[in-house]
Amino acid sequence: MEKIGITTTVPVEIIYAAGCVPVDLNNVFITSACPGQLVEEAELAGYPRNVCAWIKGIYSAALHMGIKKVVAVTQGDCSNTHALMETWQLAGIEIIPFAYPFDRDYDMLKLQIQKLMDFFAVDWLQVQRSWSELQEVRRLAHRIDELTWRENRVHGKDNHLYLVNCSDFNGDPGEYAERASRLIAGLPADPLAGADEVRLAYIGVPPIMDDLYDYVESRGARVVFNETQRQFSMPFQTADLVEQYRLYTYPYGIFYRLQDIQEQLALRRVQGVIHYAQSFCYRQIEDMIVRARLSLPVLTLEGDRPNKLDARTKMRLDAFIEMLRA
Fold it and tell me: Is 152 left (phi over 0), alpha (psi -120 to 50) or beta?
């Protein structure tokens, strides 16, 4: 089956309905054996130093995998995607553009979905069948999320990994479902949390450092809400594919995202918020709005290249957790 690269979450129901395999290039990049090397390879190819490492990483990841076609989100994700698309075209990769309308207009979004269906030569009946199959898998992800915050039986890192993988289900929804089922079946009966546990939220793009969740748990805190990752799992009560991707908050404005964030912070009894801002990303500007609108304490962390937490960031996390515990 042909592998189709994606630059962020798109209606993967269409790709699966066409008998192809979606590949979230972000996941390929960050889980590779040497993600830093992929960034360096992009810089050697000509990418500037002051461009987001995610962009450089997924550029190289597509070339390494021999990807021939990429669905690239031209509106609703990274502002550097247009140039990324052009450099892939230079390398011979076919680009399939997809745009989330800024105002969440239903008809405009339906038109984009129809164009994607036309490219892959599938109809609504086929896509609806694919949607139904994926819904069964998504319910497992939703159960893992619920077990994280309601029953306190899932680590923040496991929550992050299972939800973030809903962007493409690792190219094999059946295998994803088996792993998720095993995780749920193997969970301890008793809660992980102690009485003094600090409950945190993580908002923003997924972290580029790989030890954040383990570190905060080593300090007696736990992430019980992963905002963007949860959105990848499509936690919505609708049977309308277009509406599902209209309810999905990540590609739209910060104020729409904040509605969902504030609702979940209250529901999950969160005490403090980690707002992750990737270096050289336009979303860093939105930090001022996040701080102005959220009533809980916010710690803003910035990451650049794939790495471990540095000493300064660990000290800031320590101080933040101790402040919340006091």
Answer: left
Would you say residue 194 has pLDDT above 80? no
Give residue-wise pLDDT tens across range 46-91: 999 999 999 999 999 999 999 999 999 998 888 889 999 999 999 9
Strand spans (E) along 149-236: 198-204, 221-226
| Both tokens assigned to 288 | 């001022």
- Residue 272 bridge partners (DSSP): 200
**Rounded distance between C-alpha atoms, residue 153 and residue 97, angstroms:** 40
The three-state secondary structure class of 317 is: helix
Q: Which phi and psi angles does 57 have, rounded to 5°?
A: -65, -45
Q: Using 50, 70 and 90 to split pLDDT, how confident is the model at 193?
A: confident
Torsion (CA) 7, 247, 76, 35 in degrees, nearest 10: -30
The amino acid at 265: L
Measured CA to CA, the distance from residue 302 to residue 227 in angstroms comes to 17
Please name which of 209, 215, 207, 154 lies closest in space to residue 184, comparing C-alpha atoms. 154
152 in Cβ contact with 225 (< 8 Å): no
